[in-house]
Every structure is written in C-alpha cells, then in structure tokens.
Amino acid sequence: MYVVENATEATAIPHPPRRLPVLGDVLGVSLHTPVQDSMRLGRQLGPIFERRALGNRFVFVSGADMVAELSDETRFAKNVAPGIAELRGIGGDGLFTAYNEEPNWARAHNLLRPAFTQSAMRSYHDIMVRVVGELTEQWDRCAGRTPVDVSSDMTKLTLETIGRAGFSYSFDSFHRARPHPFVEAMVRALTHAQRRTFRNVPGVSKLLYRKSDRQNLADTTYLTDVVDEVIRRRRDNAEDGPEDLLEIMLRAAREDDPNRLDEVNIRNQVVTFLVAGHETTSGALSFALYYLARNPEILAAARAEVDAVWDGGPPPFEKVAKLRYVRRVLDETLRLWPTAPAYAREARGDTVLAGRYPMKAGDWVLVLIPSLHRDPAWGPDPERFDPDRFAPEHVRGRAPHVYKPFGTGERACIGRQFAIHEAVLVLGTILRRYDFAADPDYQLRIQERLTLMPVGFTLTLRPRPRG
C-alpha cells in the first residue's frame, strides 16, 4: 500500500465541472487551443488541476511554490509527455525527445554543450547578421507599400539562421514566394502531434485518424529526407567542412570520441535542432514585435537604446548584449507567451507534492508555463506588458523558479544562449531600421502546434532616416 508521509491529508485534485463518462472534460474546450483552454481552466480551478480526455489524464501545475518543488532534481526529472512522445517519429532519441535512460541523450549533451555556451555565440554572430540582412532587404522592398506577415518572415529568418549556423545549409528562405516545404511539413507534424495527444483513444485511434496519420508519415519522411541530404552534402565535402554542429558530430564519429553518436542519432539531432532551433524563436520574435507595436512608450525606449548603443553598420558581437532594455522586452515577451508553453516532470520516487498531493514513482505532471508566469508572485497585474519586471532590482527580489521559458534542470533548452543572441540582434536591427505600426483593429490570435505563434499579425513599415 502507498503511504503518504509528511502530509497533513491527501487532497483531491480539482477538475472542470460537467465531466462526461468516457469522453471526460471535453465541454467548452477545443483540440485547436488546449493551452489557452487550460490557462482559462487554471484561472477557475487554481494552481493544480486535472483534465481527462478520452481516457487520458493530464495534471497541470502552475503555482510558483509547487513548480519550485518540481524543479528539485533530486525528487523529479524530465518526463517525455504524450505530446513530446508523439514527436519521436521526427526526433527519435534526439536531445528534446529522448527518454532519460537513453544513452544518446547524455552523449549528445556532453558533445554539443560547448557549442551553445555564451562565449560560443561569437562564432555564429556573423551568420546571424547576414541572415537578418536578407530579411531587411525583403522588408525594404515592402516598406511604404505592402504590410509584412510577421510570423511568416520570422520563421524564414530563424530557419535560415539555424540551417546555416548549425549545418552550413541554406533553405533559400528569402528567395521563395511560399515557405520552404520543410516548414509546411514541420507545422503539420507539430499540429498532428498536439491533436493526437488529446484525441488518442486506445484501440480506436488508428482507425479514426488513418488519413491524418498517413499525412504525418509523409511529412516526417520528408523531414528526415531533407536532413539526410544535409548530411550527405557534408560527407561529400568532408575536407572543406566548417566548424559547426554537424561537423562536431561527424568528427566525433570519425575519431571514435567517447561521446560519438551513431548515424541515426546524428540525423535525430539535426532534425531536433532544425525544428526546435527555429520554431520557438520565430514565435518569440513575432510576439515581441506585437507588444512593441501595441506599446508606443516601450517601443520608443527600446529604439532609443538601440540608437544610443549601436553605431552605423552591422553591430559587432559585443554590442548585442549591451541592448539590456531590448533584452528585457524579450524576457517579458517570453513571460506572457513562452513559445514552448509546457514541460513535464515525473517523480523519481514516491513523494508528496506541496504536502497534499501524493505521487508514486513515475507519476508525472505538466507545468503550464504561461499560467506560472501569471502567478501572484508577479504582482497585481500580470497581464500587463512591462519589461521593467526584468530590471535587476526586480529580478533579485523574485521568487525562485517563477520564470521558466526554457524549461528546467539538466534537460532545459540547450540552445537558450543561441536563441537570446539571435532574437536581441534581430529586434535591435528592426528597431534601428524601421518605424512600424500594426493594424489598429488586430486582436491577438494564437496558433497552437505544441508551440505558440501569433496568427494574421502584420506590420506596416517605413524606413527610418539614417543619420
């Protein structure tokens, strides 16, 4: 029998009203917006609640105190939750989708971690500058004439950046009228994984979703075919290979490094970085531009900093980190809409969460990050966009573990420094080069596909005078 120790009394976890037999908590929710629905339910039910859907149980946690407990690596570890497990058809045992016990996770983490330190960003900076230059060339042609689709263009930019910086491969993103087929296949695969998570009916799903499963198989096959081509090109030109992520992995295999990765895992890592390395950053940039356009005083302050810190010409590496207010704009954006909006934690052994909720070894919960980032610890108006929340004096006084846009623990996002440097560089470049305005009638709409992205958000641009 499982015994609750150090707990006053086991407490039932709240759930939505009007639970239906078999179907579960499906009234008033949508397959298209499970994160936003869960945020709404959390406001009604509190910092921990459960949802059941078609026999599947999901426990959501957003209270700062409980998340602090879940961040204790001695008691909890990453759980590959159903939505992430659905992506193993794309990423296999890559860094993001690997189970904790799979040996390739530790090997890849040890091998690639030095390539994502803050000091390593210097080697990627010039590539990032060139890619943002291609964005501004396209936007210059639109300025004063045609509104730009922000999410689409940020996706082009971030895919091109990780392709070139990580694997010396160009998707020719800014020379295409439509998104690269890799992007279209990826979006369908991510959307399929999310919807499959909440509509999985044991024994029935294969029949009900045969058509969408066939499309998903075609998409995942295409994604891996693209990556195989990237690797093939490198092998064919091995003597001239640049020092990038792909070269680090291939060289380790050639030299029989203790952390060497097998052929299949190298492919899994490349797919992981191409997908995760651009999808979340493009969403963060799109949300940041939305909030800047909606807040003229914050926009003016960010632009004034760029004008004061950056001289003419492309900014050198050192000047990106000096945009401290722009960085706070990015941090506050990721507070309101962390583009990877949840992560799962599982109990390493029998334990009790918050002194009231028993968990057996292997039990898992989802940390709902947008709700955590609206915890009362953030003050009386957490929906307000305020970059000064990240001023040093406020950061020092903040409760621990209340800000988690990159996950937690040893399985947190390995590419955090890459994403931050790229995003601040891009925002600074846009602020310096353009005056911009959003459609005043636009209301923020968010597409969910395991990640979050604004939909239908455009900007009208005007070139700024160059002095």
What distance lies between the first and last C-alpha atoms, to the nearest angstrom?
75 Å
The total strand number stands at: 12
The global form is: globular
Order of helices and strands: HEEHEHHHHEHHHHHHHHHEEEEHHHEEEE
Instruction: Give the % helix.
Output: 40-55%
Structural Rg: 22 Å
Q: Briefly note the structural class of the backbone.
A: alpha+beta
Average of the residue pLDDT scores? 91
Commentary on this structure:
This protein has 467 residues and is an alpha+beta fold. The chain is built from 18 helices and twelve strands. Residues 1-8 have low confidence and may be disordered.
Task: Give a short synopsis of this structure.
This protein is an alpha+beta fold.
SSE diagram, text form:
Layout: H1 34-45, E1 48-53, E2 56-61, H2 64-70, E3 76-79, H3 82-85, H4 88-91, H5 103-112, H6 122-142, E4 148-149, H7 150-167, H8 181-198, H9 205-208, H10 210-236, H11 245-254, H12 263-294, H13 296-309, H14 317-320, H15 324-336, E5 342-347, E6 351-353, E7 357-359, E8 364-368, H16 369-372, H17 392-396, H18 416-433, E9 434-438, E10 446-449, E11 451-454, E12 458-463
Parallel strand pairs: 2-8
Antiparallel strand pairs: 1-2, 3-5, 4-12, 5-8, 6-7, 9-12, 10-11
Helix pairs in contact: 6-7, 6-18, 7-12, 8-10, 10-12, 12-15, 12-18, 13-15, 13-18
Offer a few descriptive terms.
globular; disordered N terminus; alpha+beta; 18 helices
